[in-house]
Amino acid sequence: MMVRNIKLLIPGLLAVLCLMLAPSGVLAQEVLNQIVAVVGDDVITTFDLNKLQANLEKSLGPPANETEAEMRKKQIAKLSLERLIEDKIFGQEVKRLGIRVSDQDVERYIDRLKKTNGITDDMFAAQLSRRGITPEEYKDGIKKDMLKARLIRRQVKNQVVISDNQVDDHIRKNKGQFKQLDQVRIQALFLKIPEKADENARRLIKRKAVDLRQQAEAKGNLTELAKEYSQGPGGVQGGELGPLSVVDLLPAMRQAVAELKKGEMSPVIEVPGSYVFLKLLDRSGETGLPDSAIREQIREKLERQALEQKFKEWMTKLREKTYVKILDKN
């Protein structure tokens, strides 16, 4: 009987001994890296959550006071968890469908991006460093975007058909915008609006954009601010875009450009997914695009908008079918 009791005690003693000999940092890491949510057959940990929260905090800049800091902390925590849940669901569906993007695909995309925009490796690395993003994180983001594009093509592309009547209706509603001068060069600074951002989070991001616009106006220089803060196209080039056809611009940006003289800066405006302000650098030439070209560009824009909406609806339904359990951290 005594031998049996000793045998039963041995595993427990070994476990205690392992805990005593384990480095304190390892134990602390295991305690800190707890599971905060279960999504299908995957989990989200505090490490994942804290990392995304830190990135979002950095993108917003310092809070104005302690009250705002506390409020923003709660909003970002909620937003970060929602984004991670969506990422997990998205990743599981991509895996289930066998959709793949290779490392070579990502590298080729980045190489084309550098070549098209005249970016050297050093310039590219410096831009990532200013944004606090590692090359691996950037590549992960590109890979996710490419997977999303392939998933959209596979799941919802055939559900979207833009008719001639829809194009005609868009032209009628925006008739004045097609009388613009067709070629412009602009500078733009974008701040992204996270998909699940509530009104308070959106307000904070817009206030950051307004503050950056005031700085640009006071300094008379948007270039450095765009390089450091812009989260949209052209950031590496100090926000410079163009020459662009006016019809290629988002409607809100097109309207803003129409009201600007050369050298003037627009107020902060909202476009899908971002707040942006822009400066008109140059404009030239009356529109000479044939009607068919304009209509094709309109059709493509309407299709992109419809695809994005269909994708959101599809993701909402997918989440409803996926097991999601948020664990109480208190």
Automatic annotation (TrEMBL):
<dbReference type="InterPro" id="IPR046357">
    <property type="entry name" value="PPIase_dom_sf"/>
</dbReference>
<keyword id="KW-0413">Isomerase</keyword>
<protein>
    <recommendedName>
        <fullName>PpiC domain-containing protein</fullName>
    </recommendedName>
</protein>
<dbReference type="InterPro" id="IPR050280">
    <property type="entry name" value="OMP_Chaperone_SurA"/>
</dbReference>
<dbReference type="Pfam" id="PF13624">
    <property type="entry name" value="SurA_N_3"/>
</dbReference>
<feature type="domain" description="PpiC">
    <location>
        <begin position="181"/>
        <end position="282"/>
    </location>
</feature>
<dbReference type="InterPro" id="IPR000297">
    <property type="entry name" value="PPIase_PpiC"/>
</dbReference>
<keyword id="KW-0697">Rotamase</keyword>
<dbReference type="GO" id="GO:0003755">
    <property type="term" value="F:peptidyl-prolyl cis-trans isomerase activity"/>
</dbReference>
<dbReference type="InterPro" id="IPR027304">
    <property type="entry name" value="Trigger_fact/SurA_dom_sf"/>
</dbReference>
<keyword id="KW-0732">Signal</keyword>
<feature type="signal peptide">
    <location>
        <begin position="1"/>
        <end position="28"/>
    </location>
</feature>
<dbReference type="Pfam" id="PF00639">
    <property type="entry name" value="Rotamase"/>
</dbReference>
